[in-house]
Design a protein that fits this description.
The chain has 7 helices and 5 strands; from the N terminus they run ααβαβαααβββα. By secondary structure, the chain is of the alpha/beta class.
Length: about 190
């Protein structure tokens, strides 16, 4: 048996969504989602779980760059300089949707599903982010996903739900408050 055969399989989006929702219910907290390349697939995974309405506030599908700026408050200068496929854009999307929809947690996806490059980024380049309650941090993760458009989008859904699950577990353990906030991808941001 090779190492690949022993590797654990990545949980399906439905399983991750159910786990996230259960963690939120236990904490008495809510969630809102901002989606770009996933076009509503994260919200669909969440609302596919019975009882999601107890904690899921809603989502904004901000496919157009202008919607990211006007509706979710992403800095226009940042969008002009870096484009929509950027870790800081993902952070601002997560924070913006959390604030605008009045949720405790915000999650976001932005990236290039393909088949063509966008903003100088190749298909499969994705950023996902999670914004914690109150003045908590925002964590972002850069992904390089392979496959066709459907696989990139599906992988993005699983990645943002896994990141959210991990942050819910991490902050429940009380570890989130002492994290250094240095601005790199994958680190908590103020």
């Amino acid at each position: 048996m090779g190492a690949e055969e022993n590797a654990p399989e990545e949980p399906a989006a439905e399983e991750l969504a159910a786990e996230v929702l259960e963690l939120l219910v236990r904490r008495g907290q809510t969630l809102a989602v901002a989606e770009s390349l996933t076009g509503g697939l994260v919200a669909a995974a969440l609302t596919g779980v019975p009882g999601a309405s107890r904690v899921f506030r809603g989502s904004v599908t901000a496919y157009a760059t202008e919607v990211k700026r006007r509706v979710l408050g992403v800095d226009g200068a940042l969008l002009a300089e870096r484009g929509a496929v950027d870790a800081e854009v993902a952070r601002q999307l997560a924070r913006g949707v959390r604030e605008r929809l009045g949720a405790d947690w915000g999650a976001a996806t932005t990236g290039v599903a393909g088949p063509d490059p966008q903003d100088g980024q190749w298909p499969g380049t994705v950023h996902v982010a999670v914004s914690a309650p109150g003045t908590g941090g925002v964590v972002a993760q850069r992904l390089h996903l392979s496959g066709d458009r459907a696989r990139v989008r599906a992988g993005s859904v699983r990645a943002v739900l896994a990141l959210l699950r991990n942050e819910l577990i991490f902050t429940a353990a009380g570890a989130g408050q002492d994290t250094e906030q240095n601005g790199d991808d994958g680190c908590l941001q103020p």
